[in-house]
Amino acid sequence: MSTAPATIETDFPRGDATDLDALLKPLRALEALAETWPEEQRNGAMARVAALDALHAEALRRLVRALKSAPGAARAMREAASDEVVYAVLRRHGVLKPNLFERVEAALDAVRPTLASHGGDVELVSVAPPAVEVRFLGACDGCPASALTFYAGVKKAIAEAVPEITEIKQARGLGGAKGAGANGGAHFVSPFAAGKARDWRRASSLTDLPDGETRVVAFEGRSVLLSRFGEEVTCFENACAHMGMAMDGGEIADGFITCPYHGFKYALQSGECLTAPEVQLRPHAVRVDGDRVDVALSD
Ligand code: FES
């Protein structure tokens, strides 16, 4: 029986160098390698993985059951689950249920092949129970007939997979250059600002906000978080949904911020809270006009 090449084994991260991507990299390499093995050998390896998974899942379930009644354990486990590695492993073993955002995304994944076969796609703009907002892209956007059909398909998929979501809003013409029109020459306008008269005030220049970065900005006597994702800029009140604390100094990585106080983790593109999906950051409307980033406070 052949063995995995030494390069793969020595790629395993050791010590503290263990972010999720680093940990998953050698696993993906081994999975790709196993694809090249004879069927019998591959089935044996898969069976071993399944047996180990079952063992680990049962051990984790027993651990959680044993800890559950201990004072402060629920909170400690919630905080532990805000770590991406802990979250990923608990999710894989079914100890944590998928959050609302993941469930809606999974429902959209189910209809994406149909949309793609007509040259279109759909993206999730925001999740705010009982409503979600989606945006149709490509051929799905701007064609009334196909939009109706696709909207019905998306609505049905979400209703079946996430029954607590009862309202599907549709963001129209807001991606990239399509934001112009009702909002003057702006080339990006945050979805919930569409078509409404707003008191826009300059908050930053686009060049001061490099792609992928987040800035804490003092704005109109408030503190807000400005984040850039390509041409899209989001703005949220710099106040944790847990106890309202400013999150200055919280870890910001890969489009997520972790509150420095008790570890609540938020997606800076949607404002969704991964730690407690029933809450989210308070959004403010944003528009990008040339190099100018304007914000209109939501209240
Ligand atoms: S997690 Fe408690 S204030 Fe942010």
Overall description:
By secondary structure, this protein is an alpha+beta fold. It has three domains: 6-92, no CATH class; 100-171, Fe-S cluster assembly (FSCA) (GMP Synthetase, Chain A, domain 3), CATH 3.30.300.130; 184-296, Rieske Iron-sulfur Protein (3-layer Sandwich). It is built from seven helices and 13 strands. The protein has helices at 6-10, 20-34, 39-68, 73-80, 84-92, 100-117, 144-161; strands spanning 120-128, 131-138, 167-171, 188-189, 201-205, 214-219, 222-229, 232-237, 251-253, 256-258, 265-267, 283-289, 292-296. The strands form three sheets. Strands 4, 5, 6, 7, 8, 12 and 13 form a seven-stranded antiparallel β-sheet that branches. The model is unreliable at 1-10 and 173-185 (pLDDT under 50). Bound molecules: FE2/S2 (inorganic) cluster.
Write the layout of secondary structure elements.
Elements (H helix, E strand, L loop, with lengths): L5 H5 L9 H15 L4 H30 L4 H8 L3 H9 L7 H18 L2 E9 L2 E8 L5 H18 L5 E5 L16 E2 L11 E5 L8 E6 L2 E8 L2 E6 L13 E3 L2 E3 L6 E3 L15 E7 L2 E5 L3
Parallel strand pairs: 2-3
Antiparallel strand pairs: 1-2, 4-12, 5-13, 6-7, 7-8, 8-12, 9-10, 10-11, 12-13
Helix pairs in contact: 6-7
The structure holds FE2/S2 (inorganic) cluster.
CATH class of the largest domain: Mainly Beta
Portion of residues within helices: 25-40%
Looking at the structure, the CATH topology of the largest domain is Rieske Iron-sulfur Protein
Could you tell me the radius of gyration in angstroms? 22 Å
User: What does the oligomeric state look like here?
Assistant: single chain
Beta fraction of the residues?
15-25%
CATH superfamily of the largest domain: Rieske [2Fe-2S] iron-sulphur domain
Given as residue ranges, the uncertain stretches (5+ residues, pLDDT < 50) are 1-10, 173-185
Which outline best applies?
globular
Mean pLDDT: 80
Assign the structural class, choosing from mainly alpha, mainly beta, alpha/beta, alpha+beta, or little secondary structure: alpha+beta
Helix count equals: 7
Unique bound compounds:
FE2/S2 (inorganic) cluster
**Known CATH architecture of the largest domain:** 3-layer Sandwich
| Number of domain modules | 3
The major β-sheet equals: 7 strands, antiparallel
User: Which sequence of SSEs, written as H and E, runs from N to C?
Assistant: HHHHHHEEHEEEEEEEEEEE
User: In total, how many beta strands?
Assistant: 13
Distance between the termini: 67 Å
